[in-house]
Specification:
With 246 residues, this protein is an alpha/beta fold. The chain is 43% helix and 13% strand. The protein has a 6-stranded parallel β-sheet with strand order 3-2-1-4-5-6, with helices on both faces.
């Protein structure tokens, strides 16, 4: 579901530097994954005789990862679910999601074209996500974009997940790119906080899963459509190049 509010752009880090790397979150940023994840969770809940949970109630929890999202669906049940059963259902949910629902998640409109345009600028592209590496790799591969990314860092790769800086700093270290030359694209407070702590600029995708306007601050730009984002990057790179030669 697309955010209906408008957030004024706040120009912070990287305001004069040209980008050499752009790093993306996955859920709510590149892929619209919430509907398929919610369907997988509810399928398992109903099979176990529990009640379905409305998709919007799982929206915020997805920013923490696939398991936290399912745990939220358990926490929202009318009666307490015994811990052993909860763990069993979580395993079933992950299995069903990987086997049936994972390929159902589409890229947001114009993501592929945007990535190709960025690669044409000789930029390094990366992934920084709280999703596990196995399902991340499947998503990227089935969408035909895996080969466009230089580095992928997922849940468990760094010592702490987002909103800590650790995973984004790992991406930058592996790329050999300084924070001042990088941009993180995300859709949640997890991403905005990770970027801020890493001293990396942030671009806010308004079509993702943020709940409150303040979740996406501070940011250098915000966009609802990837054509807007591509135009912003191209214009910014061109303006900075001209300024350097002035």
């Amino acid at each position: 579901m697309k955010l209906t509010f408008c957030v004024r752009s706040i120009h912070v880090m990287n305001k004069n530097a040209q980008f050499r790397a752009i790093i993306f979150d996955v859920d709510g940023t590149l892929f619209d994954t919430l509907p398929s994840l919610s369907a997988a969770a509810n399928s398992v809940l109903v099979q176990a005789g529990l009640r379905e949970v409305a998709t919007p109630l799982l929206r915020a929890a997805l920013n923490e990862g696939l398991k936290p999202m399912f745990r939220q669906s358990i926490a929202l049940q009318a009666s307490t679910v015994e811990p052993g059963l909860a763990r069993q259902l979580e395993d079933e949910y992950l299995d069903q999601y990987m086997q049936r629902w994972l390929p159902a998640a589409p890229l947001f409109d114009h993501v592929h074209e945007s990535l190709l345009a960025l690669k044409a600028l000789d930029m390094k592209l990366g992934i920084c996500t709280n999703r596990d590496r196995a399902s991340t790799d499947v998503l990227l591969t089935q969408a035909g974009i895996a080969g466009l990314f230089d580095i992928v860092v997922g849940m468990g790769d760094a010592s702490r997940p987002k909103p800590a800086a650790d995973p984004l700093l790992m991406v930058l270290e592996r790329m050999g790119i300084p924070a001042a030359a990088a941009l993180l694209v995300g859709d949640s407070y997890m991403d905005a906080s990770c970027a801020r702590l890493s001293q990396v600029g942030f671009a806010a995708h308004l079509g993702g899963y943020a709940v409150h306007p303040g979740d996406l601050l501070p940011h250098m730009t915000s966009f609802s459509n990837y054509n807007e984002f591509t135009s912003w990057v191209l214009g910014r790179q061109s303006a900075n190049k001209e300024a350097c030669h002035a």
